[in-house]
């Protein structure tokens, strides 16, 4: 499943699109055969808020965001639509990019990709913990708060904390495979510095994702 998710994200990024709403509900599982687990086909959905980061758009100054801001200036902000909501989301993304020091078009593009990768890292953690932990012992928001607020994205410290809860031990063991390869790739995706996060293709090629840790 994880390879399917990151494969889809890699395809989107290589074709100039950000997802920008990655989460558990954005993954759709199709199957060719209900009795064959290997035929499960994860696909990304919820593309309504996808952002265009093609070279043409990124250098043009994101006209959709400019149009949305003009709509506000013209007093037409009550006209809520998918188009205006998408423009608002893109505008917020570029504001965060500026705050992070991403000022040039290429830096902003890199920030957008890294922003998707961060969300994908949280999604990966959610899938692993919810799938392998005792039912009801963890949920997405609490896991995100644990990583971000309690341990300030220090996943080694988070791991030590999680070890104390027997309900989470199977998830810990899974991430520990290959001398902690799972934690390694998660930490890379959740790096506070967006410049240090890997692209989706690099995540796909990581030893934890290729299955090399199993041999």
TrEMBL record:
Source domain of life: Eukaryota
GO molecular function term, any single one: protein kinase activity
GO cellular component terms listed in the entry, alphabetical order: chloroplast
Domain Protein kinase: 1-209
PANTHER family noted in UniProt: PROTEIN KINASE SUPERFAMILY PROTEIN
Name of the molecule in the record: Protein kinase domain-containing protein
Native organism: Ceratopteris richardii
Lineage: Eukaryota, Viridiplantae, Streptophyta, Embryophyta, Tracheophyta
